[in-house]
Design brief:
alpha/beta; 21 strands; elongated
Length: 656
């Protein structure tokens, strides 16, 4: 026996009899292990032929839980075993509790160590096998080599073990890699080989974790992309399509599986608009694109960004796309008109209004064009909103356009939109018109009687063909839009005057609803008054006052040329000057209290009764707003052009 090993053996024997350590012979790490084994009452003379071998089911579960470690370690164990094969040495892998998971050995080694249990499932922790490379490396958490009599159990004195702990990327202990053999065939550099193999295994575990994390991240990203309401396409610098989600495939009219890995020009043609960003290097946001897809022309809104590497070189591009109807729904939801009124919001018990509501409810369910006729302020838009909300289009957009308030030269572009470069000042990329924005919903054409004749012809084509052509465009765009038109004019008379097309009048006059003026439903005035008092008081943050019954008398005796809108304005004026908790007739504006004087003044001009009240309303409104045409027109609910005509009609300009 080697003299060094002989001295260690004598120190071991002395410790076994006296529990004394010879520190100049026994290393501290070994001495500490011997003390632990003594305290754990490990029998140094036990045979170790059956180290609490686990049952088959327990072994199977333990192996399954550590399969990732085994898969990562086995290739390196085999490589390591090739170095030590034939030298009475074997390689084994234990888990973080010291239980053998895998062992590589030949028949000779198996025969020479048959008195030991190195089978899968054997427990080589210090509490079971005493001081040994596996158990002690496990406890210390660092590489160690245990030789001959350094082992606590005598049966292991013929062996040398070299072991090192394996750690997961997160720092947790994964297991132990060990080379075990007859001590005369194991060298100091063996531990270095084990440490190097462990480092390789740890790198493999880190790589596998990174790959797994990347795969999980990719799957999550793929799921997110696939569930997006937007279409998404990714194209490399060489124009190879690397990703295309289902929505993009649907918009572009292709099958997703036929596109991935293919050249974009091969699938979509050399003039595919999305390739422009790769050709020019110019990114864009919310550009409207018209594309001849395999299934026909398609229009969508796209945003494209370049993909660059760390050096700033372009590596590809990614683009999103939305169908026009989705974009338009968002525009209308956040920036357009909202249909908030329903038939329940329309107040009235007079037979004329009750029967009108019943008729409107019936026609709301059809898709027919509706013409609302009534004086200014009678609530034509309120009826239009209620009809929309009672129809099958209630979840679609509700778009309003005041035909009398838009400058003549802009009406066509507002209604039908325009293409990029259609005229000087046109927005880059073009712009959809109100009919496109209302696709799937309702468009409310207020003051249709003021629409220019040349635009009436285009509107007629839309109503007949259900499609529009943008200004500067060549290809028609199909629209599924219900039209509700409104006017305070007698369109039949306008046709006779040559101001309105007869064919358009017939097209609009499919279903006509006449909204009665407020003077014809005087019994509804008290109820409307109470409603407006409550509504306006809440808005002003005051307690709603009690209403003196005499107020109703004055309100019912007034002609209301401005109808319900004027009544609401009168109530608001009164509440602003109200003192106390009772609404008295003295709080009403002077024109309500002295209606007879007003009529006499206007009769001097030779006007009819209806014209009298309208002229007075226009004059009073202009004076109230200091002849600010914009504000007065807004208060009256008419367009600026209409107001100018009424000023001229009633010869009011000279009274400014």
């Amino acid at each position: 026996m080697d003299r060094g090993l002989e001295r260690i053996y004598k120190s071991w024997a002395k410790f076994m009899s006296t529990r004394e350590i010879e520190p100049y012979v026994v290393r501290p790490v070994i001495a500490n292990s011997w003390h632990r084994c003594f305290l754990m009452q490990v029998d140094p003379m036990k045979p170790l032929s059956d180290l609490q071998l686990l049952g088959d089911q327990q072994i199977r579960k333990r192996v399954e839980r550590r399969q990732e470690l085994i898969d990562a370690a086995v290739p390196f164990m085999k490589h390591l075993y090739n170095f030590v094969k034939g030298s009475d040495t074997f390689v084994c892998l234990a888990d973080d509790q010291g239980v053998i998971l895998e062992a590589l050995k030949d028949q000779v080694v198996s025969h020479r160590t048959k008195h030991l249990c190195y089978e899968v499932g054997a427990d080589w922790s210090e509490a079971i096998a005493g001081t040994n490379a596996i158990g002690t490396a496990l406890f210390e958490g660092k590489p160690i080599q245990v030789t001959a009599s350094e082992h606590y159990c005598q049966v292991l004195h013929s062996l040398t073990g070299s072991a090192a702990p394996i750690f997961y990327p997160n720092g947790g202990l994964a297991g132990i890699l060990c080379i075990m053999g007859l001590h005369q065939h194991v060298y100091p550099h063996t531990l270095g080989m084990v440490v190097a193999a462990v480092k390789a295994i740890e790198n493999e575990l880190a790589y596998r974790k990174t790959s797994k994390d990347l795969l999980v991240a990719y799957d999550k990203t793929k799921t997110v992309i696939e569930t997006m309401s937007e279409g998404l396409i990714s194209i490399e610098q060489n124009q190879i399509i690397t990703h295309l989600n289902s929505e993009a495939a649907k918009i572009l009219g292709v099958k997703k599986d036929n596109c991935i890995g293919k050249h974009a020009a091969e699938i979509f043609g050399p003039n595919f608009p999305l390739l422009d960003v790769l050709k020019t290097g110019e990114e864009y946001t919310d550009r409207e694109i018209l594309f001849d897809s395999p299934t026909g022309p398609v229009r969508f809104t796209s945003t494209a960004r370049l993909i660059r590497d760390s050096s700033g070189n372009v590596r590809g591009m990614i683009a999103t796309m939305r169908k026009p109807n989705i974009v338009h729904q968002l525009v209308n939801r956040f920036g357009g008109a909202q249909a908030t009124f329903t038939f329940d919001d329309i107040i009235g018990n007079e037979p004329c209004i009750v029967s009108l509501i019943q008729k409107a409810k019936r026609v709301a369910r059809s898709g027919s064009t509706i013409l609302l006729q009534g004086e200014s302020g009678t609530g034509k838009e309120m009826f239009a909103q209620a009809i929309h909300n009672a129809s099958g289009r209630r979840y679609g957009p509700f778009v309003v356009i005041n035909c009398g308030a838009i400058p003549r030269e802009l009406v066509e572009s507002e209604l039908f939109g325009y293409e990029d470069g259609a005229f000087t000042g046109a927005k880059k990329g073009g712009r959809p018109g109100k009919f496109e924005l209302a696709n799937g919903g309702t468009i409310f054409l207020d003051e249709i009687g003021d629409m220019p004749l040349e635009i009436q012809a285009a509107l007629l084509r839309v109503l007949q063909e259900k499609q529009i052509t943008r200004i500067g465009g060549q290809k028609p765009v199909k629209v599924n839009t219900r039209v509700i038109a409104a006017t305070n004019k007698n369109l039949a008379e306008e046709v006779d005057k040559g101001n309105f097309r007869l064919d358009l009048y017939y097209r609009l006059n499919v279903i006509t609803l006449h909204i009665p003026p407020l003077r014809e439903r005087a019994n509804d005035i008290p109820r409307l008054t109470r409603y407006f008092v409550e509504k306006i008081s809440r808005r002003l943050g005051i307690k709603a006052p009690k209403i003196d019954p005499e107020v109703f008398t004055y309100l019912q005796n007034y002609d209301w040329p401005g109808n319900v809108r004027e009544l609401e304005n009168v109530i608001e004026q009164a509440l602003h000057v109200l003192e106390g908790e009772v609404f008295h007739h003295e709080n009403l504006p002077q024109r309500i209290l002295s209606g007879s004087g007003r009529k006499a003044f206007l009769r001097k001009k030779g006007l009819s009764k209806i014209k009298e009240v309208e002229a007075k309303l226009v004059k009073d409104t202009l004076e109230a707003h200091k002849w600010n045409i914009t504000k007065a027109a807004e208060a009256l609910g008419i367009g600026r052009n209409t107001l100018y005509r009424k000023i001229k009609q009633y010869n009011l300009a000279g009274e400014k």
